[in-house]
Amino acid sequence: MLVLLNKPYGVLCQFTDRSDPPRRTLAAFVDVPGVYPAGRLDHDSEGLLLLTDDGALAHRLTDPRHKQPKTYLVQAEGMPTPAALDALRRGVALADGPTLPAEVEALDVAPAWLWPRDPPVRFRKSVPDAWLMLTIREGRNRQVRRMTAAVGLPTLRLVRVRIGPYALDGLAPGQTRLVRAR
């Protein structure tokens, strides 16, 4: 079984939270018993999260050797230069080693299908922002945020839109869809 969830901003990528006060968790959105996240999505990131009860499928989706492409919509602070985009395409040197090359495209505006974030991203008149579509084939901790920061484009908003063959495809924040594993 495979469940696609559009994880809202501010939701922990686990089913329980022992903090006081407790934070929102996957339990508020996923009522399918026996499934667990195949991978992670940070508390302050949004978008596609896959959950499954199939350990072999979870392994195929998350093991770095399989290099499943993960595509993100990134709202970045600043305007991307050709040099910054080229650096992302070549791979970026991070503290834990160089990244694999990324596919990146600068967008003129946010896609029309993108929902407003709650709470909204801070707006500053004096600092422009830009939208990028970025695909990576590894999944280090906070990798996209670290990559964009390394090229001078700190991430303001991060929305995962695709993992391998699975995509949001119209799922609203908090909605789930059961699909057949491919």
In words, what does this structure look like?
- By secondary structure, this protein is of the alpha+beta class.
- The protein folds into 2 domains: 1-63 and 166-182, Pseudouridine synthase I, catalytic domain, N-terminal subdomain (Alpha-Beta Plaits), CATH 3.30.70; 69-163, 2-Layer Sandwich (Alpha-Beta Plaits), CATH 3.30.70.1560.
- It is 14% helix and 30% strand.
- The strands form 2 sheets. Strands 1, 2, 3, 4, 7, 8, 9, 10 and 11 form a 9-stranded mixed β-sheet that branches. Strands 5-6 form a two-stranded antiparallel sheet.
- A hairpin with a 2-residue loop joins strand 9 and strand 10 (166-167).
- It starts with a strand and ends with a strand.
- The model has no long low-confidence stretch (mean pLDDT 94).
Q: What's this, in brief?
A:
The chain is built from 3 helices and 11 strands.
Shape: globular
Please tell me the CATH architecture of the largest domain by its name: 2-Layer Sandwich
**Largest sheet entry:** 9 strands, mixed
Any low-confidence stretches, pLDDT <50, length ≥5? Answer: none
* Counted beta strands: 11
